[in-house]
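Question (not urgent): is this output format expected?
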Amino acid sequence: MDDIQADVQAIGRMAEVPTILEVICKTTGMGFAAVARVTDSRWIACAILDTVDFGLKAGGELKVESTICHEIRQSHDLVVIDDVDESLQYRDHHTPAIYGLKSYISVPIIRRDGSFFGTLCAIDPAPHKVDNSETIGMFRLFAKLIASNLDNNADLVQAQVDRAEERELSVVREQFVAVLGHDLRNPIASMMAGIRRLSRAVGMSSESRDVLGLMQSSTIRMRDLVDNVLDFARARLGDGLKLDVVTGAPLRPVLENVVEEIRSVHPDLDIRTDFELDRDVRCDHSRISQFLSNLIGNAVTHGDCKKPIEIGATTTRGRLELWVANSGEPISDEVKTTLFRPFFRGEVRSSQQGLGLGLYIASEIARVHGGKLSVNSHESETRFTLTMPL
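Got this back:
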């Protein structure tokens, strides 16, 4: 379907147009009214009301050069004629002679972008008083209404196209994230397995163990960065973070494994734990593990390395509370407003720059669990706390 045919059909679908044409004819006394699509080479009737047997049907065409609408397309000005015989400008014009009209009014239909669509016009073989402010105002109002409907219809069609493209793009995004996760995580997992195996070797020098420790630290950081980037893509570009909820399994070993991994990478840090979990927690264990790892990583980056990092968890009053606290410079109220936004980074040492996704992903993990991540910071302590219902 070409654009012209689509425009004709768009007018044909407007329920208001028949009423507009009827009001025009009854108000002016003229016997023919139409909405026409006019281009530099075509005049096409989109809608017609004909009580004088002019002989044109919807979809019919006139030679554009034979119409006054051709001139209106060029000037964007309306034309109003009460009686052709009394009009100095139009009494010798070819259009009245061709079509036998005496009275004529045509108003341009201008789209939102300023483009010319066509005209709202009326003709009659007898003279009529149409060159007055009331009639002209009515035609202009109806022309604006038609243009507005055309624009709204175009917006709706574009929105439908955009939604279809967005659905298709969403599938591509999910496939991209899945493939990327597989291709990045697998080699990292192999590296971590190799490092663990080498660490158990007998007779290794202290220098070799130091090198392996650095390799392990870098590999864990790579894994966490990949996890955060992939989760950011899912949260902002895909269908959001998904949970694999576990029931009937204790959460404490999950939390302890995270802490032990951090301790192995940072043996010089004093990391203290206090887990008082007297019941199982219905949650996604891998997500909670990621959550805690991100918070501890934040404490390592921003906290005072000479003072302990404290980690605690309780199941009381029908909710889980999981927190990480560290000493160091307090977080200002201004910074708190952007703390959980993606790619936000506070002041850190150059060797510890990151993407600024850790706290954002942590807050998203809290949200999809029905909980909330909050922060309380003052001179003696900065504490991040997850609160979620059991």
